[in-house]
Design goal:
The complex is a heterodimer.
Chain A: H1 3-10, H2 16-28, H3 30-50, H4 56-74, H5 78-101, H6 115-155, H7 164-182
Helix pairs in contact in A: 2-3, 6-7
Chain B: H1 7-17, H2 20-42, H3 45-62, H4 72-98, H5 116-129, H6 134-144, H7 150-157, H8 161-181
Classes of the chains: A mainly alpha, B mainly alpha.
Chain lengths: 184, 182
Amino acid sequence: MNNDLFIKYYDNQLSSTEKENFEKLLATDPLTKKAYEDFLTKQNSLKELNKIQLNQEYFVNLPVKINQRISSKNKPTFITKTALAFSLTSIIIFLFIWNFWSNPTTTLNNSGKPFIAETVKTNTNNFSENIQKSENKISVSKNVAKDKLITYSSIENESIELEDNDIDDFINTYQSYKIIKTGR
Amino acid sequence: MNYNLSENELAKLFIENKDERAFTLLIKQYQQSIYWHCLRMLGNHSDADEVTQQVFITLYKKLYTYKFESKLSTWIFTITSNLVLNYIKKKKIKVFFSFDDLEHDLSDNSDIVQDIDNKMKLEKLNKILQKLPEKQRQVFILRNFDDLSYEEISEITKTSVGALKASYHHAQKKIMELMQNE
């Protein structure tokens, strides 16, 4: 028998005229009616197969499982953290190397020594000079401070025993006073 | 707070306020229908469980893109449908390269059904449905079991109504033949 017609009728795909004709056929032809009933029995068996009792405990736990997975996806994993750390380190190293190589002149200086070594040495020498200048300034400042205190003591007719800590404290206080007074 | 809210209200709460409780309620509202759809499409519990979770994780990330133009159920089923078909594709590739058989392990369903009757029913249903090509199976399930209209299925699968009707028709014919032989 014609399954195509049964399927279309069952799925409501027939036009109103076709539907009317089919229903007339069902009413008048017992063979067609029997075939359609067999078709309906199979459809109902399929729907019965679908009526399965599932374990409801699974659905009680499912939202918890989903929320746990969502929370774990929000945290960066070990691999992500490692990759991030590696990228940052690479960028820093790259900037450091680029800083040294950014000079457009030749990599060798006039004496033929490698530029990088010479630059490092120059930078180190500059640094030492600055340290020395600072130390000189401090010793000058200490002498000035000592003179001032001695002058003060002679004016006030007081004897002052000076220790290194006293001089340091005086310099700090004097410098703070100078900053407040001059703004420098 | 009273959570006797419609799905659209729950979706709005989650999108605007990142209200996790609203999202959990959405999960509870849709978990059974989505799981069922996945189980019928994939044929076993562990695959259906995995894809169901993926659907909700995707929903969590992408719900802010929902424009309230179509029904939320249609939107969710679109995500489900795409994830299921992608999963089937990936599984086929995996199976191809591992030289394994593509037979579904139906003993996998012991977590979700416990009594013998239901196990047999599920086995029979899966045996019939898995004989259909994926896209035909999808249309058949959405029409026959999820009771969606052709217009809704068209929105989900991005296929014309005419093509869907033809697909459903072929699926029905094949199912009837299979049931005849059972």
